[in-house]
Known about the structure:
The complex is a heterotrimer of chains A (255), B (314) and C (501). Chain A contains twelve helices and no strands. Chain A is mostly helical. In chain A, helix 1 (2-14) crosses helix 6 and helix 6 (92-126) packs antiparallel against helix 12 (224-251). Chain A is globular, with a radius of gyration of 20 Å. With 314 residues, chain B is α/β, with parallel strands linked by helices. Helix content of chain B is 34%, strand content 30%. Chain B contains ten helices and 14 strands. Chain B has a six-stranded mixed sheet, sandwiched between helices. Chain B has a four-stranded antiparallel sheet with strand order 2-1-4-5, covered by helices on one side. A four-stranded antiparallel sheet of chain B has the order 12-13-11-14, covered by helices on one side. In chain B, strand 9 and strand 10 form a beta hairpin. The longest helix of chain B is centred in the middle third of the chain and has 16 residues, at 173-188. Chain B is elongated.
Amino acid sequence: MIPFAIAQQTVREALRRRVMWIFLVSGVFLIAMGPVFGFLSPKDSQTVLRSLGLAAILLAGLFITIVTCIYLLPVEIERRTIYTVLSKPVQRYQFILGKFMGGFAVVFINIVAMGIVFLAMLWLQEKRLPPEMFIGVVMTFFQMLLLAALTIFFSTFATPVVNFFLSFGIFLVGNMSSVTDSLTSNNNPLVSNAGKVIHYLLPNFGNFNIQNSIIHPTIEIKNPNVFLFQNMIYAIVYSLVLLTLAVLIFDRREV
Amino acid sequence: MAAAISIDGLTKKYIDVWQKMEVTAVNNLHLQVEEGEIFGFLGRNGAGKTTTIKMLLGLIFPTAGDATLLGKPMGDNNVKQDLAYLPEETYFYDSMTGWDLMDYYGRLFRIPEPERSRRVKICLEKVQLQPEAWKRNIRGYSKGMRQRIGIAQALINDPKLLFLDEPTSGLDPIAHSELRDIVASLKDEGKTVFLSSHQLADVELICSRVAIIHRGKLLTTGTIRDLISGERKEVTVTSQALQNGLYEKIHSIVPGAQRQGNELVRFLSDDDDTISAVIDIVRGAKGKVLSIVPQKRTLEDVFVETVRKEEGEL
Amino acid sequence: MASAIKKFPSGVQARRQKALPIVFVLLLFAMFMQSRIDPMAREMRQEEDLFITATGSLNNEFMLLPLLGFREAAAGLLWVRCDEFFHSGDYDAILPLVRLITWLDPHADNVFITGAWHLAYNFTDSSERSDRRYIIPAHELLKEGIRKNPRIPDISFELGWQNYDKTKDFSAAIAAFQKSINTIPWKGSDDYPYGAPLKTHHILAHAYTKLGRIPDAMMEWKRALQRSTEQLEKDPKSFTFKSMHSAEERNLAMLAQRFADRYTATGHSPTNPTPYPAVLIPPPGTDKTPRPWNMSFRPIVLSVRKNVLKMAGRINMADGARVDIRLTDWEYDLKEKERRKNISTKMLERFDVDSATTIMQESISVRKNKYEREIDMSKDTKMYSFKNKSKLYRVVVSFNPRATSPHVQDRHGYSGEGLIDRPEVIEYDRRPEFMGTKLIDGQGGEGPVWDGKTIPDEKNIKDEKYGQPNRMLKVTLKLSEQQIFGLKPISAKDIVPNEAP
């Protein structure tokens, strides 16, 4: 109950931040512009709407996640409100958990909002709801779950600016999983070992990038449920690792 | 009476990595606060008052030493059920209304509805926050209103022990005295208040006991009455014989004696024997004792004297 | 910054001891999941690779970087990806990547060069004949690279090399090498991965020789020698520079020797009846009068079956000479200028070539005065669609004296000035930029009479007039679709008059 109270309060605070709304509105705007670009582009308008929509959700989601989660802890410390919370019978892990849940709820709300707009546009254009597009949105959602956990983890010991570069950097590196995957089989043992460390140890954000496959109506994901399930498990387990580490560090942090 | 706070050798040291220097914020602090008293914790800015409170609440971790709160080790999560803390200069979540803020803190104590709403109402009324402000955003609150909501949030759980850090600083005189009265009234409800302040006049009015801390070191502790007791008297004498060496004689007994003009000598002393000896000399020289006026010390005098003395030694 | 010596509550310590093993196990589990996800992700990526679109087979991560402004970084990563495709032989996948990289990073000189090389050389039919339709986009890519990198001599060098080696357009090659020489390099390092500027004079000298501009060639050899001498002084142990230096010395000497031999036939008779007396190969034991070389060029083209032609024939020339075969749509050369002028955005953006266009080019070497080859185009319908609108095809069988090797040229001169054959098979290339050094004795060509001693050098070159046209042997056939498809025989009646280049 305590984490829920903290989460609810966090959502309320976060929804008041203007910068989040800017990203949300830009995302929705981009998605809504899909048919226009499809009209302008000589390529298949269906492909344009699909790729633009998924890209907009990913990009807006990425920035919303980072700007929301980066400040969750620092603002509490800066305004000293954390003293009033932690001096009450609130365990530090409950505080972290509440903050994470709140931050992620904000991301969830945003992705759902953009997802609804996206699916509505698809419905208008294709007169059906392609299930693989739904999977695409869900994948972005789990990618953001992992990113939110990563950002919270860094915010237990890094300043917001440092956190931004760390989270963003790892997001970029983690996104290059096709590159790091090919590095693991490199002939140079130094390169292949470095590739393995990056590919397996760092959070692998590239797993969730199935946009290109699903944009093409001709490509089918084999065993989509297995693929989806494995990626979900991966995101959840890795987020758990990050949150536990965040709690362990925050336990020892002097506020 | 049992001890509400018992501090045993609490020490907090920082290492300045760049200058390779050890900084002691709190140095081997021993202190007892009894249940039901308002305890004044005095010190200049940076003396270690807030550091001590944060250690007691488990926000930061001591280098050495121990303490118990309400009989339980500090940092214990269960004891926090009966604690309250008002930090200095808190901004709160200023996009929330006063009521919502109180409700949020109530939920952190797992106070169920409708009990929670009742408690919120009681607390807001107690700190005399105008009801029309309850549903307004804290962003629009004045400094006095913020301090009121701060005390209100500290009362939400009906705590047994409150830590108030400078609750009355920076307020206008009316708000100041109102808040001071609210704090004073907590004692009547049987609560223990650990009041960190440098508003010495307030402390003197409402606290039963005080401790003075300077550069992390406890200088003195005791009841206010004890601290300001040892009444001094100002003695004024006059005599024609001042020219004939009487002043020098008085001066040799009381080095602080001051001569005013050709006929008056004044001095301060808290020692009756010394005073009697001087009076004997004056009478022998056919002089007059004009007045012996008792002088009362304030807490401020004690504080300044104590700190100066410590500084002088350093 | 201050750190503290801390005494944590016992719960904190206990929590850490309990949680760390759990974290470790969870992390191992996450890594295990990753190993399960990888094969599926790989499979998916492979499936994507089958689709060539504007983004090719790119994942979003590559698109993210440029969106954030890291264009060069994205380009670099893509180039790494490209390397994989080169190794796997997935040549089609490379094209969109090359396009994307050069858009992202217009200063990726190596991508312009390698991409153009890839276009011009790597697309072949099953008999390793180049798909020459890709030459235009290759050259366009190089020209774009030159425009965007005005201080990188390497790209002009590559354009020169392709014109010299691939298209045998020696005039264009010379212009490109000159441009490369006149480009002040941006980088001041000694790292020259693509030939320029170290080998520019060297290859330029070869190009001048092939164009029959011998004094120019000799001048370039001297410049090349100067350059390699400087390099040798800097690095006396370098094998590359040593061998280059000695090759240049030898080439200059040989060229001077040949120039003198070919143009100064000592026994030149003023009564020689032929207009092309320049070459002297007097048969042993006969009189010393120089005679022209009769080529006796007799090409035959046979239709074997659908899309299979047999090329055979006679040519009176030493082994090592090559006969060029070129089969195109009838209008191919007529439309060449138009094609180069109006380059479609499809071609520029996706390196797409017109699938209806057919061009096949082959060169067959001569053995014992004969040549013969069966050209099977039936297996490569993508390259040879035979789908042009007029349904007429042009087959040109030709011999280019300039492109041939020096020991062959010894028989007919640099520009074929010493060869004779039936008039209808001799084709003069009189385009001004293709004129070689004039004949010296004034009989066949229009040049000044040579004193037989002086080798023309730099200062004479200014006054030199180039007036020697290339004298090619060429037979043109006009074939119908039925003849290509093997439904009608090909005969001498299909031979049509040559068209001037």
